[in-house]
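Lest this sound abstract, we let one protein speak, letters for residues, whole numbers for local backbone shapes, and leave readers to judge:
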Amino acid sequence: MATLHHLELEPQALAGNGGVGRYVLLPGSVERAARIASRFADAEVRPNRRRLDVHLGRLVRGGRAVDVAAVPTGMGCPSVDIVAGELIAGGARRLLRVGTSGSLQPEVRVGDVVVGTGAERDEGTSDAYVDPQYPALADPLWVEALASAASASGLAERVHLGLLHSKDAFFGREFGHGPRKAENEAYMARLSASGVLATEMEAAHLFVLGAVHYRGSRSVAATRSAAAHLRCGAVCAVVGDPEHGFASLAEEQAAEERLVDLALDGVLALAELEGTAVSG
């Protein structure tokens, strides 16, 4: 297959884990991608002109190793469509958004982490793929692996499972800027009343890509093993809430450290569930 156009990456770079391919972590931020990659062994950077540098390496812990990558998506679902779309076309089959979000529930506090089980599709990108009624759901084994990792690391009280809200307009929709302020504030209030945990900008489209690009068996046996064709999940740190606004820099950094810890633990937990981790 030809080099991926925007990422300027040969698909062979995404291979690993006994044919499953690298587990790819997808932060929005370029800086967060580099911070994630600082935890990799045998780290290697593949730069490109769009500054969406691809970080390759291995996650090694407890004598086990998993081939991994970290790639920034930028902000918003249109950028996710390009980055995740190219990765999937190039053979990536395990993708996890590692992002930030704003709380929509009083019990979800700044510094907590939300594992998305699905997402409200308040964005236009996925409309090019599916009808408006089509749900955006995370791969259930990603959810299971991340929940297991949260319990094992003592974070169970600060990690929440539930729905995310994925929007296109950050200031307009979430903060009520502009002439549709009342309408947007009412919309966000309905989300909160409906139990949606947090709002962000990328997960819904990644979930839709995971569904529409899936090929092969969806039996329980297949979807709980390395035979699963494609898995897309999302985990987001909470860095703001309606009452207090944005977190302080120190609070945000602490939340992102907790996020990265959980994401990497989740990768290892998923690899164990699938049986793809090898001796490191």
About this structure: The two ends are 30 Å apart (CA to CA). The mean pLDDT is 96. DSSP finds eight helices and 13 strands in the chain.
